[in-house]
Protein 1
Amino acid sequence: MQKLEAAAARLAATPEAKGRYWRRDIEEVMRTKDDLYYRVEERAMEVLALGPDREVYGWREPISSKPYTAGGLKAWRRDGSPRLCPARGCDKNMPASSSADLDLALELADGLKPTLTELRSLPKEPAALRARLLESHDAQVAGEREEWLAGAASRLVDSPATPGTRAAAYLLLARAPGIEVVDGVPGTFGLDGLALQSEAGQIVIDRRTGQLLGRQGLTPEGAAWRAEIVKKVGWSEVRPVPPARCVRCEARL
């Protein structure tokens, strides 16, 4: 817990870049099997961005699908190296697709959908943040309180909230039922850091800076089988431009 507290303190003290547009680029990785029984690793880039006049942008671009084990690579070559999709160039008519419902870009949990201004104004101390979030909890529609709170905090850590609020969200999560702080996460997808770990997955944090590195999904045996790797996040003056022919990749909140 001390290492997490130290990392959170470093994050909270981090100055933010200035700009009107917030953007987050995440590389999604999933290991699966396709119809030909190769063990395949699929990669895609997921982008979410917000602008000053309630604009929201979001799209997903496939990158690659390829075998990730020696046996799978051998079988794939034996079958003539067939093209594996989804991957860049597989669908020339739609090289990118819209993200999930852009209207929910700022939703943290059932019944909790702050504006960008409200999100940026959330408390930077764990107890105060907990109290503020719970003001929106409605047991009639949202279910169990602690589970709802953990879900909201989990969404906060990679949102446009201030560094102080995101640091407080780490500490809220660390105290949530069923979550433990783990050091030395196996770097299956290159994620190496402190982790807030539950049965289903891990939120991985840079020990040195406190910045979010990404998330990993875990099998019941504890092996990482998918990941969301943060490639870029922050504020700038650069207006996001969705890829050509991307349908419903812009909206207004």
Protein 2
Amino acid sequence: MVNQNPYIPAPGHFFAGLSGFKSLYGRIVRWFAILTATMFLLTPASSHADDHQPVILVLGDSISAGYGMSAQDGWVSLLQERLRQQGLTWQVVNASISGETTQGGLTRLPSLLRQHKPELVLLELGGNDGLRGLPLNLFKHNLKQMIMLSQQHNAKPVLLGIQLPPSYGRRYTQAFARTYPDLAEEYQIPVMPFILEGIGTDAEKMQADGIHPTSAAQPQLLNNIWPVISPLLKTKDS
């Protein structure tokens, strides 16, 4: 599985302008390079997709970024493992960032599409828009743009929806929740209206903040999403 890594400063930045440390600096640079290469190979994270495998791009927020847990415990990593176990030669690129909004996702999506050339784009965004009380028309507009951008790049978009706590008011929360199935119908694309179905209302499956699912809930989260995407995967890979 491929994960979109944040910027890692060059080791030289830590030693610029210092004298008398050339030998030490050289050893540290070599150690850093070896460590980085090892991590690249052993973790489900790299910044480039294999040219010979169809790609699933996951563009999400903290729920898909695996907030509060090790990356390998998150549902996106579990998806890559399930694909491998079922002999499906798809590669997963996780471009999810904690705190991401639909506006941020829309800004990043064009370069991600050019770089990874995905067959599928899983759009798991909107939760932070809702929690911040952002205008629903902007939220919907951004999702529309991401759907159309994906289609323009010959990728199949899939909407992975979320719902808001009732404290945000009935009118706002209901209109927010309807956005995902409404857009799915308009553009004739797959949708999972609420990926935390059976999880979000169970305190034992949620972290202390009441927003993020626990690592133990990640298999169920994947099971919620799997029926929506599995027909697309098998069709492409067969």
Protein 3
Amino acid sequence: MSLDLPAPPSSEDEKSQSEWRQAIRRVLLDWRATLDAETHRHLSDLVRSSFKAFLLERPKATVGFYWPIQNEIDLRPVIESHLDSGGNAALPVVSGKDKPMVFHNWTRDSEMAPGYARIPEPQNSDEVPVHVLLAPLVGFDRAGYRLGYGGGFFDRTLAIMPRKPLVVGIGFEATGIEDIKPHQYDIPVDILITDAGVRFVTDRAEPAGGKSDQSSPPCHLCS
């Protein structure tokens, strides 16, 4: 599946690159929004299958996941299975624009209410550290840099975390490009999971032997 994307800018200045990223973002979001239901379900099932296998090696991990919006891949069925198997899950809470995300414990019974950008957030639940952080991808490149919605929430959040979780990018393989020309402060994901399977990007991606939460060895977080 190949998409007709704008050509990269010939100039290396930040303004040209930013405008190009915005153009790429519009094309990829439009493609995802118009994906027919059957194809979306089929590709999403492939991602869910790979993600489920990924979590089987991390049965006790606290997974920071996302509430799906704008036709994103819905991983809630896999998260619920992870909870049933003894794992934990958390959703982001955002206090406002240009603020980092904090993660609060989530279960099927969690009270939810619209938060920042009207995205549901858990209410009256504890803030928790996460071992695995899921990053929804509008697009991505081969080095693991992600194209998001442009708000900078994930990079801002990772920059202040005292211990970095294992970051897993979740998206459709068709939205991969050669180079998104990341900002200097952008942080790549450790693992990419798409309908094409699991791709290890960094050396932090291997499971931490003997640790059931399975964060990476340098930044293992105790529950």
Protein 4
Amino acid sequence: MHKLVLAATILVGSVAIASAAEPLATEPAVPFNWTGFYAGGHAGVGWGDADYTFANDEGINFPSQNYFNWEAGDTFSHRMGGGLLGVHAGYNQQYENFVLGLEGSLSLANVGRSGIHSPFNWNDTRQDTISTRLDWLGMLTPRLGYASDRWLVFAKGGLAYGQVRSRIDTYSDAGRFDVTKTFSRPGWTIGTGVNYAWTNNIILGLDYNYVDLGSFTVSSFARDSETGEIDTRGSTHNVDTAFHAIMARVSWQFN
């Protein structure tokens, strides 16, 4: 009898030990879902080029022609650089691993360069400078991405719209004059990026954009920089701007 009880005790103990050694069954992790609205902020840097083409010829538009250049067809280019800071919002819809989205963004910008020596008039008696700057930039871009759980890589392209400021200054014995114009320009953009869902709501990202705002024409009399009076000097020229931008971003996804 005692042997039977002892054997039963050993059997029950063995089963208990074996049961304790078996790992508990766990449910598989649910992949992150990118579907939903999101909004956030971004900051980054931009760099690119501003290309000037002087189209005026003597006697066409202004009494004192070719004041800021030598002859029709003169060209000049300079580099631009600076920072951007803005906000964005959009919506994603996930289909298995593919993610379709639409995003709008608006950024304040200081991408440009000022006080560049003109190649046409720079001597002991006269000094001309050229300045160009992007003041703000908006973009509306459809996106196509591929998701792997909390990682999302995507490509995008669409509409860009920005404000570009152009200024040519001349300093001479006759005084200081400038031709300054600001234009809001439509254009296009294309880019790519990567997002990472740090939490179920906080999305970190990095993206690249190429933006081309096309060209605009400046045809204006010069202005006396001291008095504001309009002078007989003038210029007709085209300004073409295109640049690259890299943005670091953080977003909140509304689940």
